[in-house]
Design brief:
Blueprint lengths: L2 H4 L7 H6 L4 H13 L1 H8 L13 E4 L6 E4 L4 E2 L1 H5 L4 H4 L3 E6 L8 E4 H17 L7 E5 L4 H13 L2 E4 L6 H10 L4 E5 L2 E3 L2 E3 L1 H9 L7 E5 L13 E3 H7 L9 E2 L3 E7 L7 E6 L1 H14 L7 E4 L6 H13 L3 E5 L10 H9 L3 E4 L1 H8 L4 H4 L8 E5 L5 H11 L6 E4 L33 E4 L12 E7 L9 E2 L3 H9 L6 E9 L5 E6 L3 E4 L2 E4 H9 L4 E11 L3 E10 L7 H14 L8 E4 L13 H8 L16 H8 L6
Parallel strand pairs: 4-17, 6-7, 6-8, 8-11, 11-12, 16-17, 16-18, 18-19, 19-20, 29-30
Antiparallel strand pairs: 1-2, 3-13, 4-5, 9-10, 14-15, 15-23, 21-22, 22-24, 24-25, 26-27, 28-29
Helix pairs in contact: 3-4, 7-8, 7-11, 9-10, 12-13, 15-17
Bound molecules: 5'-O-[(S)-butoxy(hydroxy)phosphoryl]adenosine.
The site of 5'-O-[(S)-butoxy(hydroxy)phosphoryl]adenosine has 21 residues, from helix 13, strand 20, strand 24 and strand 25.
């Protein structure tokens, strides 16, 4: 181990830096230029995509609470689908755009060329048009990780429809509320979603969801596994059959840079999920640039992001970023542990993956199963590793570095959010000294500031701690919440006036490197999935035996954070293990399996202030098994409830 590694610093190798798009010197000059004159910087880099009509106005944004408005390249026009497909046809028609690896390794993988991508996307766009879907209409996608998910996103973009992908692990209720919130005209789903050898009944879930939606909504079904499903005459459409009969080419529609490309629902600290809106021009510029620079993507590389297209990571780094760059992107239907714990590495070997991008939770769970699973495979094609979604603990970073990276591949720890469209803080592999657990430095155009959480004072010293805000707009930023610009301003611009508030706490060290310390609001991060504690609480109290519930996060070895629920039952209801199981199952069906509480504690009472506000700080401490330092409990209406909660706490780890 080098002295620097011993000190926890991993500089880029000179070999890597020599061939990288960006080295340390270039990062310094480009970053300085990007913040000194953002409009000039992005005027130049906006040219990386094809415009139908060139922009003349580059940046027009205000973070002033009450007047928040964000526009980039506003008078330019383009089509995102044409940028991801058509513009590559001269050079890359026969290059593989998408490698599809099925759940079952015994089934053949598929290699979809750019020419096929154009044809399939066109066919699907023509089917959507035939069913009345046009510019500005919303289409909800509830699909497995299959090529049709990519075709569907790109088909919507092609005709100017706005897609909203709903992760296939969400329940019928969650699907219905998203369909209704954006008033979708059509839903695209599949019969079943195979994952880890099991099948989720997507069509049956969609049927249930559509009971609670307008009966005008069309349901386009991909017969993927071919298993039998119900069929509603005049509503359900056999998508693959209609695609086969449709015209193989569909012209693309000219869109404004600020026309919405997609809505993606994400959890907030209060209320129902928020419909994050991303628009066309700025988002694509940012997704493609971050994909190329952060991962140092070069022609001929095979890029694999293991996320699901139901999350923003899948949008930006399976579909839009890579395809805008003419890359070969890998799409994996399965899970890391099926048929065994070597699957990720088997897929890397089989498809000669160059860049591998996954979540710390996956690394931690594989780490627990032993490095033998990694050592069995030839990983010599790998050039770079990445992580996303939550802070990575140094043990997991070291395991990833040693066993997967063989100590020689750069690791990029990318901090960003559904709201940010692309990477915000990340090492650049040829430029930045990596430190296990730190997302290090801002990407071009990103101006992070650390504010004191309570006074909002700017922490000007390099070494500082506080909440992470961003001082000015960047092209990939969300523009609004669907149908609710007020809530958008409240959620992101009201706490720290003049700044975009990420919701995260952070520390900046003496080298100016950022370390994310986690959410400071009532959002928890479970296996890299974002969960609002309020959503789990409202699911619990919707159960007839539950009087009250409070949900907090607690440290979980594999998941990062686990879900800890305090539940007060209705008068006369017995707390039993079977009721605990019933409540777990209830939350699974209300929201989805990712929201299932890990621990449920029966709480005869919850700690409340005299005005009736639940003291979450105390509940968090008890859940963290840190009850020695509960702080001041004298303001509680009934301090004795705390003793009961401590005595019966579930997490004694
Ligand atoms: C939240 C955003 C961005 C795609 C995946 C999650 C946390 C994300 C990191 C990282 C520490 C991270 C933050 C953030 N987060 N990446 N590299 N290090 N924390 O998107 O569901 O919108 O969640 O994930 O807390 O606010 P998301």
């Amino acid at each position: 181990m080098s002295d620097q590694a011993a000190a926890g610093i991993y500089p880029p190798s000179s070999d890597f830096a020599a061939n990288a798009h960006v080295n340390a010197e270039l990062y310094a000059t480009m970053y300085a230029a990007s913040v000194a004159d953002p409009a000039a910087f992005w005027a130049e880099h906006g040219k990386r995509i094809d415009w139908i009509r060139d922009y003349t106005k580059v940046k027009n944004s205000s973070f002033d609470y009450g007047n928040v408005s964000i526009k980039w390249f506003e008078d330019g026009t383009l089509n995102v689908s044409a940028n991801c497909i058509d513009r590559h046809m001269v050079q890359r028609a026969n290059q593989t755009a998408i490698i599809w690896e099925p759940d079952d390794p015994a089934k053949p993988a598929r290699h979809i060329t750019y020419a096929e991508l154009l044809e399939q996307t066109s066919r699907m766009a023509n089917v959507l048009k035939a069913h009345g879907v046009g510019k500005g209409d919303r289409v909800v996608l509830y699909l497995p990780m299959i090529p049709e998910a990519a075709y569907a996103m790109l088909a919507c973009a092609r005709i100017g429809a706005i897609h909203s992908v709903v992760f296939a692990g969400f329940s019928p209720d969650s699907l219905a509320s998203r369909i209704n919130d954006c008033q979708a005209k059509a839903v695209i789903t599949a019969d079943f979603a195979p994952r880890g050898g099991k099948k989720t009944a997507l069509k049956a879930n969609t049927d249930k969801a559509l009971f609670d939606c307008s009966d005008k909504i069309k349901c386009l079904v991909v017969k993927h596994t071919g298993d039998q499903t119900s069929w509603v005459q005049d509503r359900d459409i056999d998508l693959l059959a209609e695609m086969a009969a449709a015209k193989p080419y569909c012209p693309y529609v000219e869109m404004g840079a600020e026309d919405p490309l997609f809505i993606l629902y994400t959890s907030g600290s209060t209320g129902r999920p928020k419909g994050v809106v991303h628009t066309s021009g700025g988002y694509l510029v940012y997704a493609s640039m971050t994909h190329q620079i952060t991962f140092d993507y070069h022609d001929g590389d095979v890029f694999w992001c293991t996320a699901d297209v139901g999350w923003v990571t899948g949008h930006s780094y399976i579909i839009y970023g890579p395809l805008a760059n003419g890359a070969t992107t890998l799409m994996f239907e399965g899970v890391p542990t099926y048929p065994d714990a070597g699957r990720f590495w088997a897929v890397c070997e089989k498809h000669k993956v160059s860049q591998f991008y996954t979540a710390p939770t996956a690394i931690r769970s594989l780490m627990g199963l032993g490095a033998d699973w990694v050592e069995r495979y030839d990983l010599s094609s790998l050039k770079l590793l990445g992580t996303v979604g939550e802070p990575i603990n140094p043990e997991a970073w070291n395991w990833y570095n040693t066993h997967v990276g063989k100590g020689t591949r750069p690791i990029v720890d990318t901090f960003w959010q559904t709201e940010t469209g692309g990477h915000m803080l990340t090492p650049l592999p040829g430029a930045t000294d990596a430190k296990p657990g730190s997302a290090t430095k801002p990407f071009f155009g990103v101006q992070p500031v650390v504010l004191d959480a309570s006074t909002a004072a700017i922490q000007a010293e390099t070494a500082a701690e506080g909440v992470l805000c961003i001082a000015d707009s960047w092209p990939g930023q969300m523009r609004t919440l669907w149908g609710d610009h007020e809530r958008f301003q409240e959620a992101y611009f009201s706490q720290y006036k003049g700044y975009y508030f990420t919701g995260d706490g952070c520390r900046r060290d003496a080298d100016g490197d950022y370390w994310i310390t986690g959410r400071v609001d009532d959002v928890i991060n479970v296996s890299g999935h974002r969960m609002g504690t309020a959503e789990v609480e409202s699911a619990l109290v919707a159960h007839e035996k539950v009087a009250e519930a409070a949900v907090v996060g607690y440290p979980h070895e594999i998941k990062g954070q686990g879900i800890y629920a305090y539940v007060t039952l209705m008068n006369g209801i017995e707390p039993t293990d079977s009721l605990r199981k019933e409540l777990e199952a209830w939350v699974r069906t209300e929201i989805g399996p990712i929201a299932k509480p890990d621990l449920i504690q029966w709480a005869p009472g919850l700690p409340k202030t005299r005005s009736g506000k639940i003291m979450r700080r105390i509940l968090r401490k008890i859940a963290e098994n840190d009850h020695g330092s509960l702080g001041d409990t004298s303001t509680l209406a009934d301090p004795s409830v705390v003793d009961d909660l401590v005595a019966n706490r579930m997490n004694r780890g």
